[in-house]
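Sample entry (217 residues):
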Amino acid sequence: MFTGLVAELGTVQKLAQQGNSYHLTVAAQKVMQNLKIGDSVAVNGACLTVVRLGDADFTADVMPETVRLTNIGALHAGDRVNLERTLRLCDGLDGHIVSGHVEGLGVIANRRPEGIAMVVTITTPPELLKYIIKKGSIAIDGISLTVTEVTETSFSVSLIPHTAKETTLGFKDVGDSVNLETDIIGKYVERMLSFNGSNKKAEAALDKNTLFENGFM
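Predicted structure, serialized as tokens:
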């Protein structure tokens, strides 16, 4: 589990392809502290398992499903990536609950300044957009952000200067792809409300009684 608070920008050292899979090597500093083989690291929001450690880098296997759903397969040596270690029980939950399971890609459609902030608009597949709500949480390249606007084809977020400086969204431009993970709570609510006790599709509407019966109230 992650929070979407990026620890540092790592640098891709090598992306070696083997069939439909890859070995990704990333140079880093902060996330290397006490990192062990078998630990998980979120790379641009995708949870990867460390399989090899160097003095100042780590290597992770990237399976075909991850290649299909993320922008990791398009990385090149020298590219910067967002890195985050897993959440510890003693850590504060300053972002939101992020699983590191990227659901698909969005594309940056617009960037515009607004005061000290940068507003970024991202076009999004409809199967993901239905889970995105105004003032809800979204993970973009593993960054925990608050949605400011939602349209029929896109959503927008507002970046403070610190986020723009310390993450990939500070230098990605119009046309670039980003990994998306929607709020996990909304997906669980939808799943539970689509079934009744005998695993048949529920006829009940989303009201207070339905939420109470499914343990949300």
